[in-house]
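Issue 218. Parser rejects a valid record. Input:
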Amino acid sequence: MKGVVLVLFEEFILGNWDEATFEQLLDDCPHTAGEPFVSPKTYPDQWIVDLLGAACRRLGLTPAVALQSFGKFCFHGLSRRFPAFVEGMESPRRLLESVNDIIHVEVRKLMQGAEPPRLICRPAADGPNVLDVEYDSHRGLCALVSGLLDGCAEHYGVPFQHEHTRCKQRGDTVCSFRVTFPVLASERP
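Output the parser choked on:
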């Protein structure tokens, strides 16, 4: 896990609670960094899992709510840190379609050792405004993806809907989301 995610988690806790809460979460985890998290550094994946678990226990959140809330926060934090990835995209759909083949390719170039998930987007047979998004990662952070989708909708001001249609944690072979974008007035017959 790249440090940028842990830095964003710290910002998420500080922005919604306080520094004392973040320090308590660090104390609750079996690891202690002993120093501030560094964005380009690679940390064990277990660290974010442990921090999220500590947050759930201490703050009374469910893992799904914690991950989804953090994911939404992450989208905004990542778009501020890496504006070039979102500025050239005219719509949330275009951004989602570029994640795997453009954005994550650049992430691997910028951050040595980065292992971003695969996010494969396919037009759905249901209509031109529906996209099937397949998430593939050994981390299994589907609820984080759901939150990232919420943040994307908010960022673009486009209230699209998404549904977590399949999930490895529920026994499916893949995790996927069905994303439905609103029909724009210019697209109506």
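Fixed in the parser; the record now loads. Residues 92 and 156 are 6 Å apart (CA to CA).
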